[in-house]
Hints:
By secondary structure, the chain is of the alpha+beta class. It has helices spanning 6-18, 28-41, 46-77; strands at 98-99, 111-116, 125-131, 140-141, 146-152, 155-158, 173-176, 183-186, 192-198, 205-206. It is built from 3 helices and 10 strands. Strand 2 and strand 3 form a beta hairpin. It starts with 5 loop residues before the first helix and ends in a 7-residue tail after the last strand. The strands form 3 sheets. Strands 1-2-3-9-5-7 form a 6-stranded antiparallel sheet, with no helix packed on it.
Amino acid sequence: MVTLPSKSGIAFGGALRSFEKPCATNSPVVKTQRSLKPARALGVDAAMTEKFRIRVNQALTALVAASVAVAATLLARGAPALSTPDISRTPPAEVKYQPLDPRDKQGLGPQIALVFGDMKKKAPVGFLFKVPPGFRPGPHTHTQDYYSVVLEGIVHDFAPGVDESQPIGPGGFWFQRGKAAHDNHCASTTPCVIFIYSPSGYDYLPLTRPPAG
């Protein structure tokens, strides 16, 4: 976006306000000349009229100069490329999931697709988390906090032993404090897909249940 010098900008704004009445042509020069005739008929001071004409010409000159400068800059930079090394795109059909548990060879449990980071490092990581309909991992904790955004399905995040709380659908999200016991439930009849972000890595620690009796 081009920013005109402050004085020229003020002058140009004043010129635009003087042209609000309909005119048979869009030429700024003709508009300026026609705006002078009523001024003379009303006895407006000639010096004031001349000053107004000069301000309009200055504003138009500044606008043309700024437009030329922008055009020259764009030509110097060249046309923008349709794709660059700075942009990486992955359409939904090309997202590749892998089992969260390496022992799940058939992919029947939770699956993940890494968006950024490294699941094995204590560093920021973001990934897609996909679970089958009706899935419940059971009470568990995570060492770190995490944030979740539901993309598909209906999900519950709740403390063990209490009601499943309000369901969260696509577009909804929740925050889970690290080391706090909780459980989840994919309550939809289709798989649930969630985006999870953790600022310091991700792990899963099943909650040890006390022996019965």
